[in-house]
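May I ask for a sample protein chain and its fold as tokens?
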Amino acid sequence: MEQQMRSSGNSPKGGWLSTLIDLVLSYYARIISQPFQSGLVWFLGGLGGALFVGWILFPMALYSEQTQPINFSHAIHTMPDIGLDEPTELGRCLHCHSFRNDGTFAGIPKLETCMECHDDPESPLGETAEEKKFLKQYVANEKEVPWFSYYKQPDCVYFPHIAHVKMGKIDCRTCHGDHAKTDNLPLYKKNRLTKYSINIWGKHISGYKANTWDRMKMDDCAECHTKTGHEENNACFVCHK
């Protein structure tokens, strides 16, 4: 009777779990020792090829690249000694990227803002070719610069800058990166299907986000609201009007 109980599965130390583990280990050992026969090489090759096409070749085809009409150095324009009365970096940012009287955000400055300093097409304030181009092509003709907007949201999205900058005390670089120290404008990359900038839909198609400003999708807004204790702002009609 005792011998029957031992042989019926009540074996000490191991049993079915030990057998299962041995089978799994032996299976993976065979895969590693015989990669071609087991199909491991073909699987990894196919996976690598799919990732290469999906994460590298596809974004190259999906996004078009365009340079801005003229280059603009944020580093020069945010220096403390350029004549602005703003004592802080944020104040100097808001001098050009300002709020209107009704609280809405003006966004990219109009030509009249630039002409507060660059008012004479014959007298550039620096030696750069880009400034001379700006003065001759735009200031002299009173023509707005057709800037490409990196951060234009879909029409169905309502984003109040004043609630985030003035009330929430969120620094500009949290969403836009440290543009204040850049000498050159990055390429404008537009999605050929949606027509929106890569800065909105994400710089990495894999979804990887190294910085808070790498992407401006709904999930990123909800993540920030949750971290700052404002989960109530994740309701649909707070941002979608």
Q: What stands out?
A: Residues 13-65 form one domain.
